[in-house]
Specification:
The chain is an all-beta fold. Helix content is about 0%, strand content about 50%. The chain contains no helices and ten strands.
Length: about 120
Amino acid sequence: MAKAKTLFKLKLSAEAPQRGSALILSCHLCPETSAVAMEIRWFKGTECICLYKHGQVTEGSGYKDRVSLFTWELERGIVSLKLKQSRSSDAGIYLCQVISGDKAEEVTARVWWRKYSKLHPA
């Protein structure tokens, strides 16, 4: 897919809890733009773990009942991912990709566990 000049950007921040609690990768469109009609893809590495398309959310295999979007917030451009019951294997690179027609934007973050959880832009 060829990337056209975008009319929005993605901004990423996160809450970094301890393992076992929910991990929220907060991501929103800038300027605030409704994402209801857009396609939203969240990847861990190369695996799509959560897909929002045509109003439906599909969870990736191995993430059933663990990942979700805040669909009621899409109107405000919030495309954040919630990963429930975080575990050591959740460490890695995450990518949020938002597609609107022929326009696409993406942002990545690295999650890793130490004594305290951390999240940094990749």
